[in-house]
Design brief:
Blueprint: H1 4-31, H2 37-61, H3 70-89, E1 92-95, E2 101-102, H4 104-108, H5 133-157, H6 163-180, E3 198-199, H7 213-221, E4 238-239, E5 247-248, H8 252-278, H9 280-297, H10 302-328, H11 338-351, H12 356-373, E6 377-378, E7 383-384, H13 389-403, H14 408-423, H15 425-428
Antiparallel strand pairs: 1-2, 1-4, 3-5, 6-7
Helix pairs in contact: 1-8, 2-8, 2-10, 2-11, 2-12, 3-5, 3-10, 5-10, 8-9, 8-10, 9-10, 11-12
Amino acid sequence: MKPVAQQLVESKRSLVLLAIFGFVILPFLYLIDVLSIGQINMIGRYMTFAILALGLDLLWGYVGILSLCQCTFFCLGAYAMGMHLAHHGGPEGIIDANGWKLPACLFVVYPYDVGESSGDALVPFFWKPFWNLPLTILLGLLIPAICSFVLGYFVFRSRVRGVYFAILSQAIAVAGWLVFCRNDVKLCGTNGLTRFDIIAPAESLTTFHPENAKDQWINSHDGDMGQDLNADGKLDQLDYSMAEVGFSLSEPNVQLSLYLLTLACLFGSFFLCKWIVNSRLGRVLIAIRDDESTLNFFGYKPYQYKIFAFCIAAALAGLAGMLYIPQMKIITPSNMEAVRSVLVVVWVAVGGRGTLRGAILGALTVNLLYNYLTSEHDYGLFSWSPDYWPIFLGVAFILVVLYLPNGLIDVVDRLKARFGKNSNPIEKV
């Protein structure tokens, strides 16, 4: 067995190599046209899934809590950032009676009461804080964390655990999906948040003042009004251009920047989880997984540590959601379905539960395979159909559970160990 110091050196060396690969080699391959910006964008989205998997691995792999509602927290973060983007990047909209521009995605599905018209539509009060970018980022982390705290406080204090918590968390996911599908919640229903292609970081750092809002919009956006003002001072179908205000999410440079930001957040999330696991707190979390009753006997309160881990996992899921939506440019309640959270469990199990590197490896591997195997391929004697993907994933999951209980990361570690022995025979002594 290798000394601890040598393991740390090798771990740091691996992280440095991964950082060079992600921050230097992949962007370089894009610059020399080996990779397209679409492929870079795809890898960026899959890295948000890796952040999501890290949170679940911390919760499931190290604390022993199987949560089947992580995608609910993911969508809470995504909806927070989506509402911000909808404020600043919609193609058209109206100015409501209070001077707020109604996001285009909300305007399309606005739940009017009997006798109301588009002129009566108002921006909901809970949309307004998301105008400001720093506040949006803060809320995108806090809302999932607070929801998980409330849920965890009542559930873990009641000593609900094991399969019972898994079933309860799945019920939470279904309930959240049903709520977000309703138009009267004013979160755009099943259409989701979309119809935005602009990110305006400079403008979104300011505070919106509804007074003289019409003049603010016309002056700052250099818009073409298209129609005269109504008698009550509201604009119908205000048409404006955001080209001078922000950056298009479709621009290659913007997509590359989002990829680099996501990669940086992935490394930051990994180091946060690594620090937690290696700390005294992490040893308590592992003790909860291994023998919670003994921990109770020594005077600890395991439910407090469970709540902490649950909140961290939820906040990481919210962060992943906020990074996902500007790269995907749409978020719908379908991303919140219970089956999506089960897929996150598959990523962690395939990569290696209880190993943070395994969670990242599993998320990236499964999703890259999904991207390739959900297209038709002709191999001569055999033609691959996208319909085979669920079968392939199910068989692969069963094989990993039966023959690779430690996941794909165990194969990687064995190959590294064998390669190290062959390349340095002295170490064998």
